[in-house]
Request: fold
Amino acid sequence: MKNIDIVTNIVVCNYTELNETQKNLVDQAKKACKNAYAPYSHFSVGAAAMLDNGTIVTGSNQENAAYPSGTCAERTTLFYAGAQYPDNAVTMLAIAAYKGNAYTQTPTAPCGACRQVILETEHRYNKPIEIILYGEDKTYIITSVESLLPLCFGKTDLE
Ligand code: THU
Reply:
């Protein structure tokens, strides 16, 4: 019997330390929060995905009176990207959230289901996705969703 430690590397920084591409993607994610349909949670999330051809697609959470029928910003965005640009890999994904009358101080991390969908997108195009989780106080950069899903289940398990 032995123990294994699984290490997750997260870069903690401020918006001002991001490069121009990252800043632009965060700006788009923040803007996308405004299009959220969140009458139940009042928690507006925006996501922006960069594709390998430079295209940026955005999305937001879309809630429903039948709660589970709603969808998170990340899945709205990645499913839209897959539906509209099936031949283009997603290379980066920025996420921001707006609550009350301000963007959140701390980064908003994707829920478990969204992590699984980000993983599928990485595997589909065989490319890691840089994830930027924006917060007014601090921002996180993660190089692949595999860091957020240790012992993940993916398509190779079905081969
Ligand atoms: N939500 C997202 O869109 N993304 C996240 O990363 C976390 C949660 C949404 C789902 C729901 O509409 C609201 O935020 C509250 O959970």
Notes: The mean pLDDT is 97. The pocket of tetrahydrodeoxyuridine is lined by residues 38, 41, 43, 45, 61, 63, 70, 72-74, 108, 110-111, 114 (CB under 6 Å). Helices lie at 20-33, 73-84, 112-125.
